[in-house]
Write a structure and sequence with these properties.
- Two copies of one chain form a homodimer.
- The first copy, chain A, folds into two domains: about 140 residues, Nucleotidyltransferase, domain 5; about 170 residues, ATPase, nucleotide binding domain (Nucleotidyltransferase, domain 5), CATH 3.30.420.40.
- Helix content of chain A is about 45%, strand content about 20%.
- In chain A, the strands form two sheets. Chain A has a five-stranded mixed β-sheet.
- The mean pLDDT of chain A is about 90.
- At the A-B interface, helix 4, helix 6 and helix 9 of A face helix 4, helix 6 and helix 9 of B.
């Protein structure tokens, strides 16, 4: 019997087709997801899922067919019981009949993948930021993930917004001059910093546009720009503070908490990882590379929900 | 001959019909403006202006007719030469023929009104925040006004976003517990703070929705809530820092800078004015009530552009 694992993010939707034993048969991609509450959110979810699922079956040279279980880790889904999860469940049921549908926030899928379903935590900093932990008693802990307008500190969007703010502050004489001014001017191809405002508020800029500015902060910081270094330190410190709050809510008093860093910001913002480790201070954690990518976490969620031997499947996934 | 003064903000558009000597004949209101770069921004500008102009003429029992000058202070217009100003000029020309059209950012109209065209400055904190000064040599100075995503510190939107962030931080155990949690739950009529996220990101919430939360910060601060007091102090300090930067860019070394506080946040956020005055420290300013409302500033801009005696007109406006 087959299992589908789906990782639905803002940029793209990935689907993987596996056997119940964790052997990969094919993978496929679809478009990104909008927030499900957004006007065309459901239409977008349907088309992105359909595209990714079809591609995964095609890659396995199989027709789209009923599966034993589907696991979905989706951005914008608060938890398995939220209205968004219900919506997504209904949509996915139409696309592929399945005996079991496991659905969760994409952070939870990342967590299951990172520690193969064992207790531990992940610090996700991609477009947005969120920390998720699985306690030894099986309970989930979640910190952050409040979105780009009032949260997501230390995410790519947060760094991009901070960069723009710093450039305007420098122009106004409120903040120190910064190399970010030149970097942003070059990024947008404009001479006049004032004209940046118009670009930042364009309808199609939004969270993704700000996220694309994040690497500039790391670059300027690496070139010893004080303002960029402050932003980098502030973002790293916000993530470390969140990690401290997460640690308190976990039950790892006796041993170091396994912690995996996941998401594009860790790769694309030079120096973020080092600043974060420094800001963690004496916190008793054990930094680890994630064992499996989030999409395998979603598949593990599905396999577990179907009652099959998910630990055995996880071993096979690792051997791929 | 007649003159029109127009104050176009995000919430409403006000129009006043006056004689060239500054005597008010009628006033009218129209809908609010979207950013002119927004999809239906121009359509909205046209209908809101038309509505307000028609109402002002009607209030004066006059048919809509050509005027000698129109002055417009519009939100979203960077300055008299920006593309948005060109757009607005074309739209208003279609509605009412005029010999002269004066158009500026709404902050400049507020400044002209506040100090009757004399040198001085205004600190505007409404939905957004911006500081504008007129130097003794006639040059304009502008600080802030970078919009709600990357600026507008100390504005109603900024306070509302800070309040939501504080509530989530308290929930996550990153920040201290705060009375804002209860106040926000009551404001939205929800039991579960987590469900606030969905409401804050609803398509029709946005800047205006956050601005409506600002008074809660003042209320909680007045009731000795530490978190709210910190937010209040931080917002006030950001406005004071902007005022310091503005002061440096002005040419008032020998005398105190006349400074008027304008905008809804000063009224609706209890304690903001006192915190701001405290944060100003030793800065040599003379706080003053604005002589005239922004709409009269727009009319003064028009009268000045037409070459008439605008100082005389200003006196008559004050006598109304």
């Amino acid at each position: 019997m087959y299992v589908l694992g789906i990782d639905g993010g803002q940029t793209s939707t990935k689907c993987i087709l596996l056997t119940l034993e964790g052997h990969t048969l094919g993978t496929g991609n679809g478009g990104g997801l909008l927030h499900l509450a957004a006007e065309s959110g459901v239409t977008r979810l349907r088309s992105s899922l359909q595209e990714a699922i079809k591609a995964a079956f095609e890659a396995a040279s199989l027709p789209v067919q009923p599966v034993c279980a589907i696991g979905l880790g989706l951005t914008g889904v608060e938890n398995a019981e939220s209205p968004e999860a219900e919506l997504a469940r209904a949509v996915v049921r139409e696309l592929v009949p399945a005996e079991r549908i496991w659905i969760e926030n994409d952070g939870v899928a990342a967590l299951l993948g990172a520690h193969l379903g064992a207790a531990g935590a992940v610090v996700i900093s991609g477009t947005g930021s969120i920390l998720v932990g699985l306690r030894q008693d099986g309970r989930l802990v979640r910190i952050g993930g409040w979105g780009w307008l009032v949260g997501d500190e230390g995410s790519a969007v947060w760094f991009g917004m901070a960069a723009a703010r710093a450039v305007f502050h420098a122009l106004d004489g409120i903040g120190a001059p910064t190399a970010l001014t030149t970097l942003l001017r070059m990024h947008f191809g404009v001479d006049d910093v004032r004209s940046l405002k118009r670009l930042l508020y364009a309808a199609d800029f939004g969270a993704r546009g700000f996220a694309a500015l994040a690497p500039l902060v790391g670059r300027a910081a690496a070139e010893a720009d004080d303002v960029a270094q402050s932003i980098l330190a502030e973002g790293a410190s916000a993530l470390a503070q969140a990690a401290q709050a997460l640690y308190k809510a976990m039950d790892f008093a006796e041993q170091p908490l396994p912690l995996a860093l996941i998401g594009g910001a860790w790769e694309h913002v030079p120096g973020l990882r080092q600043s974060f480790e420094k800001a963690l201070g004496q916190l008793s954690v054990q930094l680890r590379a994630p064992a499996l990518a989030p999409i395998y976490g979603a598949a593990l969620g599905a396999i577990r929900a179907s009652g099959a031997d998910w630990r055995y499947a996880a071993q096979n996934m690792q051997r791929r």
